[in-house]
Structure of histidine kinase:
Amino acid sequence: MKLRQYQRAIDESNIVSKTDINGVITFVNDEFCKISGYTKEELIGSPHSIVRHPDVPAENFKRLWETILNKKIHKGLIKNKTKDGRAIYLNTTIIPILDDDNNIEEFVAIRHDVTEMIELNERLTRTQNDLKDLNSLLWQKVSGKTKKLLELNRELEERVALEVAKNEEKTRLMFQQSRLANMGEMLANISHQWRQPLNELSINLYKLKQSAIEPSKQFMEVYEHSKAVIKGMSSIIDNFRNFFTSNGDDEKFSIKEAIDDATLMLENTFKNESIELNIDIEDDFSIIGRKNELAQVFINLFSNSKDAFLQNNIANRVVNVKAYVQNDTNKQIKYAIITIADNAGGVETSLIENLFDPYFTTKHPSVGTGLGLYITRRIVSKLQGQISVINSNGGACFEIKIPLSGDDDE
């Protein structure tokens, strides 16, 4: 009873047909007759090709028959035709029915009409194509009439972008000048605070010498070294005080002397921290500028290496300084090239771009202020030079390039 109800439910809601193994129709339900336009009498006994649409390639039906004759279920969209020649689209499932000996007895086909959906999609596609064609035509017309307007608009955008960039640059310069003014005031205060204790040290050192009745050779060596260190620190204070002003005159000086002055300042520090300093100067050559400022550059770079050794716990600590002359044949200029390289671990690649910015530091706040490399670049720029940094051989390598004075070109 229930099976009969299930069959009725399927029969009432689907398009159902049966064919024998040769494709001859043996049964159709009312829905099949309704959609095809044929009567049962016209359909039963006829080959199923009676409803085949001529547009469908024969290859499609060949694959269909190969599937069901292999006792497999076929599922797919099939295009058929009605008695009056109208095309219909059916989602079709064809099931082989087997007898007790596992041979094909007949085929049952269950279909759903999706003609409206297919036709709607086709109309939608045609409409979309028509809209594309219309838009293309309109664009050609608009493009031809508004070409000049577009060019004017582009020029206006470029001008606005240029003005925005100029204003941003002005704002950046004003901000930088404000920071530099604060920096100059801070350095002036530092210089003032340092000057008094240095003067007292110098006086006490002189009194100590005067009080020595017969100073030994070792005493005099310590005295001269201490005096040189105090003089160097005093020079650094002058650099701090004069750095943001135009005080002082440029002069011709030896790069070797500037390196020696910096070495003298940090000699004991490097010795105490077991840092090996190797200096290789191919020829002594001179530049125009202020020797104490360039010495400050080397002091800053040496100090950075020392801090990196300590921060990264490097055991074998080496700083190599090399200076040589490089010819630029295109510009007919000679440059002094100075490299300061260490093996202290280098700098993170992502940080190199900002390394020379003011207040930017990779050190702990208690160690670095972020001004050393900024001041270093400023000094090198005043010498018409350039400074850059790369990571090499397990450390940082700074390269300074400064044009030589005229006498050294001879």
User: Anything to note?
Assistant: Residues 115-211 form the longest helix (97 residues). The chain is about 50% helix and 20% strand.
